[in-house]
Amino acid sequence: GAVVSQHPSRVICKSGTSVKIECRSLDFQATTMFWYRQFPKQSLMLMATSNEGSKATYEQGVEKDKFLINHASLTLSTLTVTSAHPEDSSFYICSARIAGGVTQPQHFGDGTRLSIL
Amino acid sequence: GQQLNQSPQSMFIQEGEDVSMNCTSSSIFNTWLWYKQDPGEGPVLLIALYKAGELTSNGRLTAQFGITRKDSFLNISASIPSDVGIYFCAGQETSGSRLTFGEGTQLTVNP
Question: Under DSSP, is residue B2 helix (H, G, I), strand (E, B) or coil?
C-alpha cells in the first residue's frame, strides 16, 4: 500500500521550455503532498507543500511564479517548472501523506530527473 | 531553522557486518523517520518512530527514538549487498508539519 507514482521519470528539454511533473497517490487519498528538490550528493530540500483545493505553501527562497503547483484532487498534484533554465536541472521528488492522518509518514514517488540544455 | 546532523557521512563495510548510524537535532522532534534511497529513485520508508524511547524493528533493521527527543539511531544487522544505498533520517516537529532531513549516510557493502 501507500504507492506514489511520479511522471515523467526523466525530462530533457531546451532552455525556456515549461515542464509539468505529475504526482499521483495510487491507492490512497492525499490532502497534502510535498515537492522536494535534490541536487547530486545532497539531501532533499522541501520546495513547497501542496494542499488539495487551496494554494500551495512555498518555502523561503522558492519562487512561486517559477514553480507552479496545482493540487486539484485528492490523488493528484502537479509541479510546473516555467521557462526552465539550466540551473533548474535537478532531481524533483514528490511525496504524499494519507488523508486524515497527520501522524502518517510521507511516502515518496520515484522522482523526476530534469535536465535543461 | 531546524538542523539534523547525521553521521557518519559514509561507511564502507564487509558483507555480514553490523552497521549503525545516527541523527541528532538541536531541537525536539515528535516523530523520527528513516528512509533509504537507491540511485535515481525516491526514498523508501524503512521505519517510523512516534514515541520517545520507542525501539522498532523491521527485519534486520532496528531504530530507536531517543528519550531526549533530539536523536535517533538506525542499526542494520548482518549487512548484505542490497543494503547499499543512502540512508536518511527525517524529523517532524509536530504532527502534520514539514519533515527535516539529515544529510544522509552513504552505505557501501563489499561482498
Answer: coil
A78: Cβ contacts below 8 Å, ≥ 6 apart: A20, A21, A22, A23, A69, A70, A71
Q: Please answer yes or no on whether B42 and A46 come within 8 Å at the CB atom.
A: no
Quick one: DSSP state of residue A26? S
Pick from B40, B50, B99: CB nearest A103:
B50
Tens-digit pLDDT profile for residues B4-47: 999 999 999 999 999 999 999 998 999 999 999 999 999 999 99
pLDDT in tens, A7-42: 999 999 999 999 999 999 998 888 889 999 999 989
Inter-chain touch A105–B101, beta carbons under 8 Å = no
Q: How many CA atoms lie within 13 A of B39 on its CB side?
A: 5
Contact state of A43 with B102 under an 8 Å Cβ cutoff: yes
CA–CA separation, B102 and B29 (whole Å): 13
CB-based contacts of A42-50 (< 8 A; 24+ apart in sequence): A42/B103, A43/B88, A43/B101, A43/B102, A43/B103, A43/B104, A44/A93, A44/B43, A44/B88, A44/B101, A46/B98, A46/B99, A47/A79, A49/B98, A50/A77
